[in-house]
Amino acid sequence: MKVKKLAQLIALIGVVSPAMAQQAAQPMQRVEITGSSIKRVAAEGALPVQVITMDSIKKAGITSTEDLLRTISANGSGADNMTSGNNVFGADADRVSGGASFASLRGLGPNATLVLLNGRRVGNHGASGKAVDLNSIPLGAIQRVEILKDGASAIYGTDAIGGVVNFILRTDYTGLELEASYNATEAGGGMQRRYSALGGWGSLADQGWNVMASVTHDVNDKLSSSQRDFANGYQPERGLSPDTTGTPFANILTGAGTALGTGFKVNGDNTTYLQANPLSFQGKCDSIEGMSQYVTDLWKDVTAPTRTKYSCAYDYGADYVISFPVERTNAVSRATFQLSPEHKLFAELLGSRSEATAELTPVQISTSLANGAAYPVGGQYYLDMTQYIPSYDKTKPIIYKWRSTPWGNRTQKNVTENLRGLVGLEGVLAGKYDYKVGLSRAQSTTKTDLIDGYGWTDKIYAALGSGKINPWLQPGQSQTADAMQLIESTKFYGRLQHGKTTMTQLDGAISGEVFQLPAGAVSMAAGVDLRRETYEFMQDVDATKILLAPGNATQKEVSRNIRAVYAEALIPILKDLEVQLAVRRDDYSVIGATTNPKVSFRWQPSQNLMFRGSASEGFLAPSFVQLYAGRLSQELPNGVIDQEGCAKNPGNPAFCAIPRLNYNTGGNPNLKPETSKQGTLGMVVSPVEGLTASLDFWAINIQDRILNRTPQVVLNNWQFLQEYIIRNPQTGVIDHVEAGWINAAGLKTRGLDIGLRGDYKLGTYKTVATLDGTWMKSFKFAEFEGQPYKEQVGKFATRDVYLRWKHNASVSVSRGDWSVLFTNKFASHYADQVPNGGKGTPPPGFDPMVRHYSIFGVSGTYTGFKNTTITAGIQNLFDTDPPFTAHNVDEVVGAGWDPRVADGRGRSFAFNIKYKFF
């Protein structure tokens, strides 16, 4: 749309999407609901907004914002939490978000979910820079949470394709209260504690000012897989066994010039084998804790079917941490001054510090003659395997694969600090126009320190090559003091990397009734949003020199400016029909301008029935990492085939056997925004007094998705990615491949949100029953334009799993000072991962489905003591284990279970006490 036409549209109509809070507002109180800048009396609106109050959060025993998002059925089941997010591999892995948690409405990813605080943006995570870290939200000062389950780019700009999560803080509080919460697991580990204080002084009505402050401190203990029986990667009778020969008692490898040579045979067997372990020959792999005989039937290698017959395996998945130890402190303060009856001035300061200790299994090391780490001939721990392998050559060094447990678990401390200051003015002009204006500055920094388990690669190899370290410890044995001293001398301790984001924002809006139509008043709003965002990420040490350290490309500070204008209008067409219009234009200094409209309606033909719907366009601006991540020029090894060129020039080595091929990877400054077209259509019905039901169908189509792709993927999909294969214009030979972040094809997702609420009174008892459910009809995506869309609902995937049905239900009963809450959380079944792509032979006990997961909770609240509220409850009342899944931790954390769907804590006991002094 041209700028002139846009300006005319804004001047004539504006926009609005007043959404609906699922609880009654005070009579005639005009409030601003998430999704609109127009204040109005809260009522069922044109857009579905779910509201969660702080009271219900406490009664459910929720102690973190991450846990809160898990109770929202529209939130995805993905690796966007602190545990799973640390173990995502592949091109799309985010290795700089350790210790962070993100929202992902509709399973579209954190980038596509906008997180607000009191309706305004906050800074993105300091390391990844992609989205708001939920750990930075001060849960102890929350009044309620509003979740807009619809695209909102026409109101808020980028990030809002999947929806909006708006945390509303208390803003005018008088008194002093202290609160403590505890949540302890029955089986041990994972203890959660929260302490908070809230104080407020002054009355806006009586004194013309109010100052309030809140401080919350959370401490979560570590929960290890070893503390839960279901976290077990060795269950071969069910199709699960570790696919690794990096064991604490090392497996010996074959190789020219080594003790095993290039392969070996066993007496009476003409097969050539490639790995050996003396414990395997003795049938004693399981004599070392966590080890077992390698199950070759499950993990057949078509190129060498018997390579692992005489190898041991290691259940490293059972060594993983289910939940990190975390310590968080959040503080928020706000001062409000009533300048006059129509105008208020306020200042707000928000700060948080989150310290999460990520812990991974010990480094797996493969020694070789080339790296100098082979065990030397004559070393005191040299293994003689001639009794098992006649060809074993004791005059040659040993190369091996080893899980280096003496180095300890790889441990990273991630510290994220956030600070946000806001000054604002709001009120009423000319007695009828609401306005607001704010100036804010937000900053987030993340620092990652390596505190154990990591060492300098050359020093580690040299230490192993000395022969002083024993990689074949028997049960009960330990390394010598000299060996441990040598190991310690190789370690690296200190800062690995740090990142920083900043955001400076000036925003303002004005709204009110502008003229009358026969059906009622037309309300309009217009606003402006000016932002400057910066991002930098630095490696403090050369991670390539530290064995298996998570290195990332350094990015010097980059910035962008965003200028946006938007408008809204609420137009009563008939007495029972409202049309809402919205449009916003964002102009990015990097990617250019984009305009996104929205239209919605609300039709209420009777008091008990309402229809609503919306249609909109949205966009997602590429992140700083996607635009600017370090560009690396590299080479693919010999033998690369140009499939298109080879077909046209058969036999020509320049096309069919390319000697070396250059490629670039990393950020792509030419990326376009992702774009969306989406809509909702629903109804709200109240067939009898006290019962309300809502059904909202939603559909989202996204194009130009931004994905990270390897050069091999680009070459293998040359039909769809010609623009990324750069050829010599004269010869047609490939000059280089542009890999890394590219605009790929798109996705299509559809589903239905279902909400139920029943309020009943029986004598002196009051009962409230609720259901929040999401049925996902389809989630399809194609990686490249031209490829067919593939259905993902109900199937195992390595990043997100898209469940057919999720719900959270509750029933509360209250009478006088007592109330009781019953809850149920349900996730439907999905197809399991098949080990090794089905190349092996799953056993008769293998179940191809991951069963549904359903847990119940109960809590009771008592307010009979003066100024005191006490809540006690049990979560996972029946101690239900997560359903079994036949995957280990190579794709998603969880050996034999899936933390994206289930909770690994088991039955837990929650207790909360709040005392208000005045």
TrEMBL record:
Major localisation: membrane
GO cellular component: cell outer membrane
Pfam families (alphabetical): Plug (PF07715), TonB_dep_Rec_b-barrel (PF00593)
Region listing for Disordered, in residue ranges: 226-246
Coiled coil: none
Record-annotated membrane-spanning stretches: none
Domain of life: Bacteria
Keywords: Cell outer membrane, Membrane, Receptor, Signal, TonB box, Transmembrane, Transmembrane beta strand, Transport
InterPro entries tied to this protein: Beta-barrel_TonB, Beta-barrel_TonB_sf, Plug_dom, Plug_dom_sf, TonB-dep_rcpt-like
PROSITE patterns xref list: TONB_DEPENDENT_REC_3
Membrane topology classification: Multi-pass membrane protein
Segments forming domain TonB-dependent receptor-like beta-barrel: 420-877
PANTHER family named in the record: PTHR47234, TONB-DEPENDENT RECEPTOR (PTHR47234:SF2)
Family: Belongs to the TonB-dependent receptor family.
Protein name: TonB-dependent receptor
Lineage: Bacteria, Pseudomonadati, Pseudomonadota, Betaproteobacteria, Burkholderiales
